[in-house]
Amino acid sequence: MKLGLGSYAFRWNIGIGDQRPARPMSAFDLLDEAASRGLAVVQYADNLPLDRLSESDQHRLAERAAACGIALELGTQCFDADEVARYLGIGRRLNARILRVALDEADAHLPVADLAEQLRPLLEQARAADIRIAIENHFNYPSPRMVELLERVADPQLGVCLDVANSICAGEWTEETVTLLAPYTINLHLKDYIIQPDPHGVGFRIRGVPLGQGRAPLEWVLAQLAHCPPETSCILEHWLPLGDGLATAQAQERPWLDQTVAHARRIVT
């Protein structure tokens, strides 16, 4: 697999929700972070939307990435036809081969047959652009339902962006999610987590840690994806908590990423 950087590795330096730094990281800054670590891919998700760049800046980003030997991937949050069409156009300019889209709670309420019908014309557009759409298993979309959707659509232009931890929120442990979705995976999001008991015994919480420092079965996950072609991207992310405030979280993101990249180089081939 090719190691890559996801924009959610810098959620606090980019800014999210009501947490906005004075100088947010740009798409070009993220590319520089990947290049400085020798990573082969950058995936821009919905926290750093590339449709806010001008076409000239999109071309400039593609040229800089090519000069660094970095492939670019796109991400958006919904299956709105206009938005997907817009992102496929951006993908053409960036020579992207993956458009990651997240399914969430609102999508979970749609009948699978209806969602499949919405997808089919988008896949024709994606085929024309030579871009595959990778649906990410997100917090509230259960993996069995994802499999049902993929099998109903039955189109090689559609696959899974497999996140190893997101589906815990949907009541699945990593092993269940990966077992179900590995056959359809065309893109991987790799992160790690721990489970911490509450100090007062009131339940527990799941929080992120740098790769290799938690309980995610990373080597097992990679073994389940041995069938993926070598050009498949392994996008590195993490769940660094806000903790003591935005400035502290911003300062921690680069050290966390450095630890994550170092571990990924040991286990990802």
Please describe what this structure looks like.
This protein is of the alpha/beta class and 269 residues long. It has one domain (2-267): Divalent-metal-dependent TIM barrel enzymes (TIM Barrel, Alpha-Beta Barrel), CATH 3.20.20.150. Helix content is 42%, strand content 20%. The chain has 10 helices and 10 strands. It has helices at 11-14, 27-36, 55-68, 81-94, 105-108, 112-129, 143-153, 174-181, 218-224, 246-267; strands at residues 2-6, 41-44, 71-76, 98-103, 132-137, 158-163, 185-190, 192-197, 204-209, 233-236. It has an 8-stranded parallel barrel with strand order 1-2-3-4-5-6-7-10, surrounded by 6 helices. Helix 4 packs parallel to helix 6 (112-129) and helix 7 (143-153) runs parallel beside helix 8 (174-181). The longest helix is centred in the C-terminal third of the chain and has 22 residues, at 246-267. The model has no long low-confidence stretch (mean pLDDT 94).
Concise account of the structure shown:
This protein is an alpha/beta fold. The protein contains ten helices and ten strands. The strands form two sheets. An eight-stranded parallel β-barrel has the order 1-2-3-4-5-6-7-10, surrounded by six helices.
How are the secondary structure elements laid out?
Blueprint: E1 2-6, H1 11-14, H2 27-36, E2 41-44, H3 55-68, E3 71-76, H4 81-94, E4 98-103, H5 105-108, H6 112-129, E5 132-137, H7 143-153, E6 158-163, H8 174-181, E7 185-190, E8 192-197, E9 204-209, H9 218-224, E10 233-236, H10 246-267
Parallel strand pairs: 1-2, 1-10, 2-3, 3-4, 4-5, 5-6, 6-7, 7-10
Antiparallel strand pairs: 8-9
